[in-house]
Amino acid sequence: MRLKDKVIIVTGSTTGIGKAIAKRCVAEGAKVVLHGLEGFLGEEVLDEIGAENAVFHQEDISVEACPERLVKLAVDHFGKLDAVVNNAAWVIQSNIENTDRAFLQKVLDINAVSPFLLIQAALPELAKNQGCVLNIGSVNAWSGEPNLLAYSISKGALMTLTRNLGDSLMRDQGIRVNQINPGWVLTEREKERKRDHGLSETWFEDLPKMYAPAGRILWPEEIAAACVYWLSDEAGPISGQVVDLEQYPMIGRNAPKDTSTIH
């Protein structure tokens, strides 16, 4: 029970990585504020982990004052707030030709500005308990894919936010801020996206070694397991760190022999 009695907000926790994080937090003894866009999915997660362990808030994270409402819900329902997991994100394809100002602003609002605003709203409560923030980024933060331009830009911004606040908030208020950058993860939405791209129902069962040296891609539960350390007291004073979670190095990788692409 590495998170016993901690109260944690997990944004975007009705599916995929966020859902896995919320479930693992509860399994480790925490109480969780669930968040997402779809009410029926939130209720499903709530039923699965138990209403005594969580409360659900349905709202677009980029809506005005949503961060304040999430913090208030945590305090009103559980009496305190120990940690924030900024997981909610809009994964959307775009490139230099079709990314206009309004679209880029919307992606940034959801993926970078909203996490900042939630941290800002949570500061007074986190400071009381010397709490922590865990931002869920992406390996695309390092440069990204050409067809994920706006998304990649937003994750780069989030990574800079993590490093900046990880220093200043630890020094000034004892609040740790860290980030994990998941690689290719087999979420429900990823399965849907690849099917929409014309791949088969079982596309993930036969992947090129270039993209999946282990023969499979990551599972949400594996990302969630890594989150426990950063949310627990075991992390001590470590702050301002960004850790990639992928099955090959992002920098200095061996030159590929197979240039075929699926990802």
TrEMBL record:
<dbReference type="InterPro" id="IPR002347">
    <property type="entry name" value="SDR_fam"/>
</dbReference>
<dbReference type="Pfam" id="PF13561">
    <property type="entry name" value="adh_short_C2"/>
</dbReference>
<protein>
    <submittedName>
        <fullName>Short-chain dehydrogenase</fullName>
    </submittedName>
</protein>
<comment type="similarity">
    <text>Belongs to the short-chain dehydrogenases/reductases (SDR) family.</text>
</comment>
<dbReference type="InterPro" id="IPR020904">
    <property type="entry name" value="Sc_DH/Rdtase_CS"/>
</dbReference>
<dbReference type="InterPro" id="IPR036291">
    <property type="entry name" value="NAD(P)-bd_dom_sf"/>
</dbReference>
